[in-house]
Write the structure tokens for this entry.
Amino acid sequence: MTDTERVAAVRTEQAPGTDTHRRPGGTRGLRDGVLWAAGVTLLALSVAVAVTIGPARISVADVWSAVAAHLGVGDSRLTPIRDGIIWNLRMPRTLLAAVCGAGLAVCGTVMQSLLRNPLADPFVLGVSSGASTGAVVVVVLGVGGGAVSISTGAFFGALCSFALVLLLSHTLGGTTDRVVLSGVAAMQLFSALTSFVVMTSADAEQTRGVLFWLLGSLSGVGWTDVWVCFTVLVVTLLICLGHARTLDAFAFGQDAAAALGVNVGRTRIVLLCTTALLTAALVSSAGAIGFVGLVLPHAARALTGSGHRRLLPVTALAGAVFLVWVDTLARTVLDPQEVPVGVVTALIGVPAFVSVLYRTRRTT
């Protein structure tokens, strides 16, 4: 298909009088509504059931009772210990898993469209490597004298890495391949810095703790982490939904997007910065959890197609449900020992991604 044909195809899809705009009111709209309602219901049930799984025997009714009491719409019949287990330990962790899964999946969807690379994920901009360096500098070198938390250090490290990627890609021309190559360069640089600091300054206990965090961990999170990450996720999702048609145009290439009147440079910067900030917030709270942003967008496209107005919400729900159950498995499969979440996502994600590749190969 030539660039002219691609532009014509995009214009046809976006024209107000075409079937594409009439379908949401009919069969496609009904199907999307059912799909989203099913996703929200599945997510709510997954959170409720996941909270009950663990050493302490808790039922779904106990979970609803505790939540209702803390929201001021009922009285809790639980003991303070059981209420604390639900509300202060398991619920924040499970909700943050849902937020991280949704956020990473959304970022992966945007990156794959924006860079026209099916292998792009939220960490392609070197954000996770920068966050790792920031966390290691705080934990191992003691920067901040105890006043700076590991999450804060990780967040600023992620921002430094992303700033380097923007500087390099802009200097090299700002094309999509230059952005990816700049991300690879930043990733290697900050990974080397992390390894250097750990090898030269950390003791055995610090090394073990840093390694566990680098592989992804949701242990010890609180409600502050949940609300911060949730707020950033909502803002990011709204911005990305506002650029849904632009992302559809980017799928046909930069030339097609520019021909449709898209300011390619400005749009790329806005979406890259937005997804990078969300990734930085998620990584600073939960560490680097891989494969969620790589695999889930492909799975969601199989359900909704490539239109981002439908794809983004479904991807967010799929990522949330996926990571809720992955985290539940990670904290219980070797109880009392906990497996890093990133290890479990890799073990599940690799065969799932290979399956997606084979399915794509058969359909092309």
In short: The radius of gyration is 21 Å. The longest helix spans residues 80-114. Confidence is low (pLDDT under 50) at residues 6-24.
